[in-house]
Amino acid sequence: MDLVLAESRQIVNNSDIDRLLSIDDIFQLIREKYGDPPNWSRPQGFISLCKIILEQQVSLASANAHFLKLSDFIKDFTPQNIIRLSEEEMRFCQISRQKSQYLKALSQSILDNKLNLTLLLNQNESEIRSQLTSINGIGNWTTDIYLLFCLQYSDIIPLGDIAIITTIKELTQAKTNEEIRFLTDKWRPLRSLATYFLWHYYLCKRNRIAF
């Protein structure tokens, strides 16, 4: 990620933490128990987006293992090399047929100049979401994670994320989708920071690490 962009859009910062703590007591509870969350970030671009695709509906540990196996196998992690992989080679790297199709769809869109990940830096959230979700295998969750980790957008909450929903239900009275959406709307415009706090709680409580 461009260093200037990372600094200008850093999700975890003291002034925003103070504002979020004043909005909802659950973040003070999390802070007292586990401290402030890390400012998780990843480089902008193809490799990070591929890794997020691999993280869909599996544990972080499993996704990381599959990503590392694929990275070691192809050496140069580019759209051209992903496209060239056969089904057998993908299976050897422990990539499912479905996710293999998703990685190749992303790769092909880049090779066909239908998607330029560098240009996303100059677009708004709606434009980014429209471009990414037009690609087979990229839905709102994957887009949310890219906006959070890679572009450091300040007001994103992935309500399709199991860890987020589990933590909200555990720490608040919100149980239904409508109640959860109503609650999280109160956290605007700091929903990304709220997300980081919720992930931080979920991971620390279960003694897990983020990859």
Number of H/I helices: 13
The overall average pLDDT, rounded, is 94
SSE series: HHHHHHHHHHHHH
Give the tally of structural domains.
2
Helix content: 55-70%
Query: What is the rounded Rg?
Result: 18 Å
Helix/strand class = mainly alpha
CATH superfamily of the largest domain, by name, is Hypothetical protein, domain 2
Describe this entry's structure for a reader.
- This protein is mainly α.
- The chain folds into two domains: 3-40 and 156-205, Endonuclease Iii, domain 2; 46-150, Endonuclease III, domain 1.
- The protein is 62% helix and 0% strand.
- It contains 13 helices and no strands.
- The chain has helices spanning 3-8, 14-23, 25-34, 46-54, 60-74, 79-84, 87-92, 97-111, 125-133, 140-150, 162-171, 177-185, 191-205.
- α2 (14-23) crosses α3 and α9 (125-133) crosses α10.
- The chain is globular and about 50 Å long.
- The model is unreliable at 1-8 (pLDDT under 50).
Helix-strand blueprint:
Layout: H1 3-8, H2 14-23, H3 25-34, H4 46-54, H5 60-74, H6 79-84, H7 87-92, H8 97-111, H9 125-133, H10 140-150, H11 162-171, H12 177-185, H13 191-205
